[in-house]
Specification:
two-stranded parallel sheet; single chain; 5-stranded mixed beta sheet; 135 residues; elongated; alpha/beta
């Protein structure tokens, strides 16, 4: 019986991992919330179609045109010249660069055509148009 009782000077050999797991879960939840919040982008009222397939690919760049004609590249406001230079850099890194064009339903058609011309000059052929699925 005396072998089962440890003295006060004996080290405790069981490791309690509960606090470490609590910390890991808190960090995981924080990471999920921050990642979800950073992917929001710019809200526009997309036109509706009957068949809208998801065109998202891993390195897809989003060009957004708002109702007032402002142009955004991945939620950052840009001019047409900045759009051309930035997409040119992305195209140099990835020759098969996919781009989705998100235009507000009230956006000027001229702005949409100007963005499409920039994409054509850069020889970006994988272009998708974002729409809402009609109910």
């Amino acid at each position: 019986m005396s072998a089962d009782v440890k003295g006060d000077n004996q080290p405790y050999d069981d490791i309690n991992i509960t606090p470490m797991l609590d910390l890991a879960y808190v960090l995981l939840v924080t990471f999920i919330i921050l990642t979800t919040a950073s992917v929001q982008g710019v809200r526009v009222n997309s036109p509706q179609t009957q068949a809208a397939n998801n065109l998202a690919k891993p390195q897809t760049r989003a060009v957004t045109i708002t109702a007032d004609g402002a142009i955004y590249l991945d939620a950052y406001p840009v001019s047409l010249e900045q759009l051309a230079s930035t997409l040119g850099q992305y195209k140099a890194a990835n020759p098969a660069l996919p781009v989705v064009l998100k235009g507000d339903a009230a956006a000027q058609y001229d702005k949409v055509m100007q963005v499409l011309e920039v994409l054509k000059k850069l020889d970006i052929t994988e272009v998708g148009l974002v729409t809402k699925r009609a109910a």
